[in-house]
Design brief:
homodimer, 340 residues, Peroxisomal Thiolase, Chain A, domain 1, 2 domains, 6-stranded mixed β-sheet, 23% strand
């Protein structure tokens, strides 16, 4: 029974492919360096809905629909949907997906949710509990900003370490069976909650970097892989502040990821031109960069092997007001293009 | 690969046992009909913490610790913890479990979270992805009341259909290997989101009953089991209002569960003496009744077969304020005492 375990945190996944993925983003994301790769750009921040929360719910629903169509499936073919988001009680998932009638497991990993969904989904497919699983997540600048920080009308000033919540929803469909030309999920590493005592709720990157460090260290140790075994290593979303900390922390251990590493929060915006300070954040950040850009690049053969590390900050407004620190979590998944 | 699937929503689980379970409750729950079965009763609503949220986090942590000790394990033996709760961003889980250093997947199923955790945990163990998994959840009357409804000092009046949030945390440790005398998890049925248009946020039982109906119907259809194949069928937590609806709905289809059915929200309090109106609710309701009472009764051989159906209402304060209805979800798990 322990044949799948590579170590405490990492398991090997057999015979699971990413059948398709889709990403829906807002205008600001479409204007960024990866704009051409996303499937749908919202016409505006509402997308014909009366509240931003309903918009975000619709984004999750449409991301699943689109990924399922791209996988040549019907909604009825999908055995489970694994979904979560940043809103209180994950209402983008609950309300967004109710009309799809797919058996539903709600998950919560803050901005690591996309990789948590792909992790659990890969295990369900690999273990024969489902033939087809959709993982989905979302974030929306307007819903997150008013829930976590200030009313949008307030126009509060942002600190240099602050990140900009991505308006984006992303979904990946996981299925059993891997052939040449497929993208396989081959390893997943579950993260521990890591809290180094950062209390600044405007420095999420700094708070989450130690969790990414912990998970990446475990991943390399348990799999025996080296950074050079990957064409690309991405985190999402540490932003520029957290990404620098991560690279330095790993370097101190003799692990150099600087050559093939990037952070989805740094990739999705042109930080200077788009005035996003330390970069992007939100469940939709690594979600849309992975499902909209990276997996498509893999399908074209431009990236053969990818380590994607989703990072989340497990705080709430209440915990911050009660003087708590910011616990971080990071989940990792290995994707490989099967080319022979 | 599809050998584990009994149908669209149900999978068969092999060789997974509940190694141990533990429940920690508040005073009101200890004074109820099941009081003697719980492992720990809080001395007061704070348990030496400065906020109720910190109390609830501590309850989750101690529930895991206790279940792990009862399973004759160390924390380090636990491969994954699956945890969630009702608080915004699931902070009881995130903050409560950070010092345990167990690889962590956050889940959210509102009051169905205990069964969701047992469901996913059973699949991870059955599939060989983990040898030992802890599922944990919690709720606390004081944290839930002020988050979802009113400040406690306000003393708002409650409607007749209202339920009382259980102060309780519960954990179950799932492991591979089943022998005579063990409690095995044998089937799990994943629920779909069901929304019949109930808008009254004070009638959660009515809102969730259709989801329980949907999942129980799928469970019987896909497994071929009849109500009489179970010594006991429980939901948690429909309360008296929702439980009556469920029994009637199933009866209309020719499925009579009235002989061996109860709802954890009705079991945990003496509704009249304890003035809880329609019964108990909260993640800790089915959690503590299952982990504190039912699984212990199974271990004593008094219940041989149990269908436990966790029911959750996937709403938030924001969705209610925006005029939304209350989507429900229900996840089911079959427990069997192995007696030969």
């Amino acid at each position: 029974m322990s044949g799948r375990k590579c170590g405490k945190q990492t398991v090997k996944i057999d015979n699971v492919r990413v059948a398709a993925s889709a990403a829906i983003v807002g205008n600001k994301e479409a204007e960024g360096p990866l704009g051409e790769f996303f499937d749908i750009t919202l016409p505006d921040s509402e997308w014909n809905e009366t509240t931003w929360e309903k918009t975000e719910a619709k984004m999750q629903r449409e991301a699943v629909r689109l990924a399922v169509v791209k996988a040549n499936r019907r909604l009825d073919d999908i055995d489970r949907v694994l979904a979560g988001d940043l809103l209180n009680q994950c209402i983008s998932a609950g309300f967004g997906l109710r009309e799809l009638e797919i058996p539903f497991y709600g998950i919560y990993g803050a901005c690591s949710t996309m990789i948590e969904g792909i992790s659990i989904g890969s295990m369900l497919v690999c273990g024969g509990f489902a033939e087809s699983v959709a993982a989905v997540t979302s974030s929306h600048f307007c819903t997150a900003e008013r829930q976590y920080r200030n009313p949008l009308e307030y126009g509060g000033q942002r600190t240099p370490t602050a990140q900009w919540t991505v308006t984006g929803a992303a979904s990946a469909v996981l299925e059993s069976g891997v052939s040449v030309g497929d993208i396989a999920v081959t390893h997943i590493t579950a993260g521990k909650i890591v809290d180094m005592g950062v209390k600044d709720a405007n420095n999420m990157g700094g708070a989450m970097a130690p969790a990414a460090y912990d998970t990446i260290t475990a991943h390399f140790k348990e799999t025996g892989f080296k950074p050079s075994d990957y064409d690309m290593i991405v985190t999402g979303d540490l932003g520029s502040v957290g990404a620098d900390i991560l690279v330095e922390q790993l370097k101190a251990d003799g692990i150099d990821i600087s050559k093939n590493y990037n952070d989805c929060g740094c990739m999705i915006y042109d930080a200077e031109k788009q005035d996003v300070h330390a970069g992007g954040s939100g469940c939709g950040c690594i979600g849309s960069v992975l499902c909209g850009y990276l997996l498509k690049e893999m399908r074209k053969g431009r990236i053969k092997s990818l380590l994607a590390v989703g990072t989340g900050a497990l705080l709430s407004q209440t915990s911050t007001l009660q003087g708590e620190t910011v616990p971080g979590i990071a989940h990792a998944a290995t994707f490989r293009m099967i080319d022979k």
